[in-house]
Design goal:
heterotrimer; A alpha/beta (400); B alpha+beta (93); C alpha/beta (306); B: 93 residues; alpha+beta; Alpha-Beta Plaits; two-stranded antiparallel sheet; C: 306 residues; alpha/beta; Rossmann fold; 36% helix; globular
């Protein structure tokens, strides 16, 4: 096989380049910062004849996803990208795409939600869409964005999955930061990703009715079938990830551990904050403090068993969310990790640290403060607060 | 009733037009159309105006499909030759 | 072309659950008779969608998809684009007509943006709006298509306000402003006019739009057997003129021999009853007549101009 090149790409460009190599038939999208680079690059690829796809410049994100639903139902390989308000506008159609079991792939450059208007990063958008039935993969850097965009098509279209996939990366922090990305050759991508084989496409020869009225006598059966499929997809995702690792010399997992050996407390991160958190862990370890890091890559479906296994030996877990679920227990990740661990015999304490809201920097010192807090909890063996916001000025917060 | 592992994939319906087996004829509450073949000129207006496809078009005649006819009375009202009369459901035809 | 020449196929099967005398049933049956082979249909949420697909039954003998309410234009665009790509890449053999179906709520109101986007981008598809002048599926609420003075449950004929206070949105003008190859109004009461226009939509090189008046016994408060008659009266009073706009050229396809007063159309309908009882609201009826006259004259002028 021809080896790919190392290219200088930012996160958005990495997504666009990967999508190009995956040869989608239809792309429907609407521009929104910080995702716009993706659709710009893809339209250039189409305009230059490097990508043979129909590019629909939709008049809204709602229509972009609707067009993807139509195209995917026809059997086309279909892609879109969005962020923030755009994802919020798509919300209704997110459920439709997953309920129809359409393997649409969507990149999301995570961005805060209005109001106040904020174009910078947090995960209010995709975390708010966590119950829409999409697989959600969160990436730390442009390399991961590239690798998982390719895997996303393979996962989505696998007949053992058939679900839409969101490939998420942090706005600006990843989307606009250029790094060296080790790409695959086109033939390597082709060998990993066979053409889509649609199950029940809209076909005049074999007419099918998609999107019936699900009366109460059938709705639960139809929905539970979807729930089972979503839960079952975890093993397929692992399988495909392993295949990718073996084929291309990567080392990805749905959860990744960093210096978790003998760790008494663990910081759990998602997305680009993981890199900063690793530096903090290194610093703490130098000081002899038993701190480890868990990076969650797959948030939907939630790898409950893997979380339990990875956190079975620690006393305290600090969950670093990048959004707030107003009026609840901090962020969604915190609540779900807590819920996942609740039935463990010697469950650890779990405290949430919503942080990095609206593009506020998360720095090494923030993680050190978080780790110190976790060590105190370990010592007391008692949790005093369910969560505390990090990176915010004023009483009750760890700032600035 | 089918269980979750028996219902078709994602609630798709894979038998086109299977609604045909569903009886809507019992929606008729008072009257039903009765066709006089002698008066019928085979103009096909009843056929094209029926909301339910309940006028069956044959080679050179039409028939009323009572399994599906909902008794709206359009065919009778529109028939230019008075060949379709609305009669009581209870009346013998 | 005669009725006898129309195909026997019923792409919308009997056994659907539209109300007795439903104008949509007639309209859609007739529209589908313009096709020699099944189109690929995307349907907005509507009476039609709900009544034809209660699981595990479908009345559709065509490929059919219903994603949501406001997205018909966009979904049709996706289907069209997919076909283009798949045919070009050799993964699909032949082109199938793409047919979007939506009611007045799904077109005049919530679906207008998606429709406009699809028309502007020039996708090759047919969009049929079957209008019954209100949100009938949710129980007769006012829409942008509801005529002035009509009673609905959200434009009630109250002691002070006599039904809807605004004029109906002129959707055709909005659609025509997109400079699409073909747009026309149809009524199932004029089946051959409808057939002729539908066949033009199939031939159109780009987006084609059909606005079909679809009388609703339940929402209009009319006896079910009058559905076809009401469509006729709408045309004869010029409340719903039949015309087409082909590459910018207007043509009125059905000119009433004698233009009937609007009262002929209003009086049989329960939704206008408050205009006639307890006392006749001649002021409102005259206002509607003047509006209809003005629009009719405008249409004839457009026909001469283009």
């Amino acid at each position: 096989m021809v080896a790919g090149m190392v290219l200088a790409l930012n996160g958005d460009e990495a997504a666009a380049y990967a999508v190009k190599q995956c040869k989608p038939d239809v792309i429907a999208a609407y521009p929104i910062t910080p995702q716009t680079i993706i659709v710009e690059r893809l339209s250039e690829f189409v305009a230059d004849g490097e990508l043979d796809a129909e590019f629909i410049s939709a008049e809204s994100e709602h229509s972009a996803l609707s067009a993807c639903i139509g195209a995917s139902a026809m059997g086309a390989r279909t892609y879109t990208a969005t962020a923030s308000q755009g994802l919020a506008l798509m919300y209704e159609m997110l459920f439709v795409a997953s309920s129809f079991r359409l393997p649409i792939v969507m990149s999301v450059a995570n961005r805060a939600l209005n109001s106040p208007l904020n174009i910078w990063n947090d995960m209010s958008d995709t975390m708010g869409a966590r119950d829409c039935g999409w697989i959600q993969i969160y990436n730390e850097n442009a390399q991961e964005v590239y690798d998982f965009t390719i895997q996303a098509f393979r996962i989505a279209e696998d007949h053992g999955v058939l679900l839409p996939v969101m490939v998420c990366h942090d706005g600006f922090i990843v989307s606009h930061s250029t790094e060296g990305v080790e790409t695959l050759s086109d033939s390597e991508v082709d060998s990993f990703l066979p053409p889509r084989d649609p199950v029940y496409p809209l076909d005049v020869e074999r007419p099918v009715t998609i999107g019936c009225v699900g009366v109460p006598e059938y709705y639960p059966e139809i929905k539970y079938q979807q729930e089972v499929a979503t839960k079952k997809s975890i093993s397929k995702i692992k399988e495909i990830m392993n295949e990718f690792n073996e084929d291309f010399g990567r080392n990805y997992g749905i959860i990744e551990e960093y210096r978790m050996e003998d760790a008494e407390v663990a910081i759990l991160t998602i997305g680009s904050a993981s890199g900063t958190a690793k530096d903090a862990v290194d610093e703490m370890r130098t000081e002899g403090k038993p701190v480890g890091l868990l990076k969650l890559r797959l948030f939907r479906p939630l790898p409950v068993k893997d979380l339990r296994k990875a956190l079975s030996d620690v006393k305290v877990v600090g969950v670093v969310d990048r959004h707030i679920s107003f009026g609840a227990l901090g962020g969604a990740l915190n609540m779900e990790v807590r819920a996942a661990l609740y039935e463990m015999k010697d469950r650890p304490h779990v405290m949430g640290f919503p942080t990095g809201l609206g593009g506020r920097d998360i720095r090494v010192e923030h993680f050190i403060k978080i780790a110190d807090e976790l060590l105190k909890i370990a010592e007391r063996d008692m949790l005093e607060e369910d969560y505390r916001v990090v990176g915010c000025r004023g009483p009750g917060c760890i700032g600035p | 009733m089918k269980t979750w592992d028996e219902v078709p994939f994602a609630g798709y319906i894979l038998e086109p037009g299977n609604a045909e087996s569903y009886k809507t004829g019992d929606w008729r509450s008072r009257q039903k159309p009765v066709l006089s073949q002698e008066k019928c000129t085979f103009c096909l207006l009843c056929w094209i105006y029926c909301p339910d496809g309940a006028i069956v078009r044959k080679e050179d005649a039409v028939e009323i499909d009572y399994y599906h006819c909902k008794g709206c009375g359009i065919c009778s009202y529109e028939c230019p030759s008075g060949a379709i009369r609305m009669k009581s459901e209870l009346e013998e035809t | 072309m005669a009725l006898k020449s129309l195909p026997l196929h019923e792409y919308l099967s009997p056994g659907h659950r539209l109300c007795a005398g439903c104008g949509e049933g007639v309209t859609i049956r007739q529209i589908l008779k313009a096709f020699d082979e099944p189109p690929i249909i995307c349907n907005a949420t509507s009476c039609l969608e709900v009544s034809t697909t209660p699981f595990p039954y479908t009345a559709w003998r065509t490929p059919w998809i219903h994603p949501a309410f406001e997205c018909t234009g966009a979904v049709a665009a996706g289907i069209e684009a997919a076909q283009k790509a798949l045919i070009r890449k050799g993964r699909k053999k032949k082109w199938n007509v793409v047919l979007g179906l939506a009611g007045d709520g799904g077109t005049y109101d919530i679906g207008l943006q998606a429709l406009s986007g699809a028309l502007e981008r020039g996708h090759k598809f047919i969009y049929v709006c079957y209008t019954n002048d209100a949100y009938m599926n949710t129980g007769i609420q006012r829409s942008g298509a509801t005529p002035k003075a009509a009673w609905t449950t959200t434009s009630p004929a109250g002691r002070v306000i006599p039904g809807k206070t605004e004029w109906q949105k002129d959707l055709m003008k909005i659609v025509v402003a997109h400079d699409i190859p073909y747009a026309a109004t149809v009524s199932a009461s004029y089946p051959m006019d409808l057939q002729r226009k539908m066949r033009k939509t199939i031939q159109a090189d780009g987006p084609a739009f059909i606005l079909a008046l679809s009388p609703c016994p339940r929402g209009w408060r009319t006896p079910p057997h009058l559905t076809i008659e009401l469509g006729r009266l709408a045309v004869q009073t010029c409340m719903f003129p039949l015309y087409e706009v082909e590459n910018g050229q207007y043509r009125v396809t059905m000119k009433p021999k004698r233009k009937l007063p609007v009262e002929y159309y209003l009086r049989p309908q329960g939704r206008f009853r408050h205009l006639f009882t307890p006392k006749t609201r001649q002021d409102i009826i005259s206002e509607i007549q003047a509006h209809v006259d003005k629009k009719w004259e405008e249409l004839q002028r457009l026909e001469q101009l283009t």
